[in-house]
Design brief:
- The protein has 387 residues and is α/β, with parallel strands linked by helices.
- It has helices at residues 3-21, 125-128, 147-164, 184-208, 222-234, 250-255, 315-318, 344-347, 353-359, 363-370; strands spanning 28-32, 44-45, 48-49, 53-57, 86-92, 111-115, 120-122, 135-140, 169-175, 215-220, 259-264, 286-293, 330-331, 337-342.
- Helix 4 runs parallel beside helix 5 (222-234).
Length: 387
């Protein structure tokens, strides 16, 4: 490269940076690779691997440095999203056994870290679950996710939340051992069981958050199984083979404000949330529920092979039983409101969580739901379509 060519490239680079900082570009773009969820399958078009999904990420005002596992995060931008502040915690069980039948409820050995705007730092449960009148959102990731991927994903979710948030909030990542091992097929069966076992720790976390006035729970794929099982246990439900505390007292039930539950591509049987289903009590502490599914999901189409005798059908493929039109708001149990959206017409044949985030227009509904934006005019979404 000649001297003059080098100078020209530097000038062009400086001009591009100046335009970005002056607001000429409306957002920063982040390209992410890798697979997440139950399993991932790249979409092939004209022989090209399109597993790299380009997401539009809201700009952040925080600086960047590698975290403990050297994960890559969105690059900083020159403009702040809003004046809203968020606290991000990681509560991890990755250092613990993957399968078990009970936990030490007096002092569970969870590994805790906190994002301090520049890097992940060690923290503790008391700080992460400290009572204060602030919205708390818990995110449970899916299958085949390394720890560095989950730390990246929760910050991406945080960027979407900040776009629509009107108040400060706390975001908790529940990180469980779902990484891919040497035998992926066997791992799927094991992680399916592990997701249910891990619900013991998540149920314990929910119990600690009972004094909070508003708590939202978001689960993707196998993370949705963990989330719904935890809600079932928290409400006093029983799961064969698992032991969790005692049934919560009526006083605690009265003091507890119901959760907002959000599921994306849930790897959960479509009948399990019915009153007589495996997680039938999960809906007893919920007053609003949003499910985003994909009728063209190539991975969840094979969910029936998880248990060949019963051949379950995933709620992430067809929606949950008892609700016909996904646009209709109707009760699943009691008086809770349920909204189900089929994103297949937009995201196509994929099980990618990132596609739901970046392509399905109903993800805006999900974000408002998690943020408890009660003043959101629901009719503003009437013109959205994924068909």
């Amino acid at each position: 490269m000649s001297f003059f060519t080098s100078i020209s490239l530097r000038v062009l680079l400086l001009r591009a940076m100046a335009l970005a900082c002056s607001g000429m570009f409306s957002s920063s773009i982040l390209t992410l690779g890798g697979y997440a969820g139950f399993t991932e399958e790249p979409k092939l078009e004209n022989g090209t691997d399109n597993s790299l999904i380009t997401l539009e990420i809201a700009p952040t005002a925080t600086s960047y440095s590698p975290d403990l596992d050297n994960a890559e995060f969105p690059s900083p931008d020159c403009r702040a999203i809003s004046s809203v502040n968020s606290e991000i915690f990681e509560l991890s069980t990755r250092h613990l056994p993957e399968q078990f039948c009970s936990i030490d409820e007096s002092n569970p050995p969870l590994d805790v870290h906190r994002w301090d705007t520049t890097r992940w730092q060690s923290s503790d449960l008391r700080t992460a679950l400290f009572y204060e009148d602030k919205l708390t959102i818990i995110y449970v990731h899916g299958n085949f996710m390394e720890r560095c991927n989950t730390l990246e994903r929760v910050r991406i979710l945080d960027s979407y939340l900040k776009r629509q948030a009107t108040e400060d909030y706390r975001l908790i990542l529940f990180s469980w051992p779902s990484q891919r091992e040497r035998k992926p097929l066997r791992d799927i069966y094991e992680n399916d069981e592990s997701a249910e076992d891990q619900s013991l720790y998540l149920a314990w976390i929910l119990r600690q958050l009972r004094p909070q006035s508003r708590v939202s729970l978001l689960g993707f794929s196998f993370g949705a199984r963990c989330a719904t099982a935890a809600l079932h246990l928290d409400a006093g439900g029983f799961i064969p083979g698992l032991r969790f505390g005692s049934t919560p007292s009526e006083t605690n039930q009265v003091l507890r404000v119901p959760y907002h539950l959000g599921l994306i591509a849930p790897a959960v049987d479509k009948n399990w949330l019915l009153p007589n289903g495996r997680y039938g009590k999960a809906t007893s502490n919920i007053n609003d529920f949003v499910n985003m599914y994909n009728s063209r999901d190539p991975v969840l189409r094979r969910y029936r092979f998880i248990d060949r005798p019963t051949r379950p059908i995933a709620g992430g493929l067809v929606g949950f039983e008892g609700i016909g039109d996904p646009r209709v708001t109707s009760p699943l149990a009691g008086q809770i409101k349920v909204k189900q959206y089929n994103c297949g017409g937009v995201i196509g044949t994929t099980h990618s969580e990132k596609s739901y985030f970046g392509e399905c227009p109903y993800f805006r509904v999900m974000i408002d739901h998690l943020l408890w934006n009660q003043d959101q005019n629901e009719t503003s979404y009437n013109n959205l379509s994924c068909r």
